[in-house]
Design a protein that fits this description.
Blueprint (H helix, E strand, L loop, with lengths): L2 H23 L22 H23 L3 H25 L3
Length: about 100
Amino acid sequence: MTEKNRGAMLIVAPLVIALVVVCIIYDPFHMISSNPENSGRGFANTPVWLWVIGVGILGSVMSYGISQARRRTHTEANITQDATDELYRREENSRERKGLP
């Protein structure tokens, strides 16, 4: 496993575990039940601690993505740009063959 994959797994694995724990503790399907007391309230009654955990997970995933984007070398940035240019070129050629504008 490469270093980048290992770093991604450090973010993805706790995210999946947290999602499973939240689904076990807080039943997300109670909002669509036929019982009028439990349905229609949306996320207004979600516990505050759940919002705090969600914001923390979202913040950590965003900071990981930003740190990975900053850590790229010029060579990696050039490879990414060349691959993007090639993809756009292939899509444009495909559109021209099909006669699309």
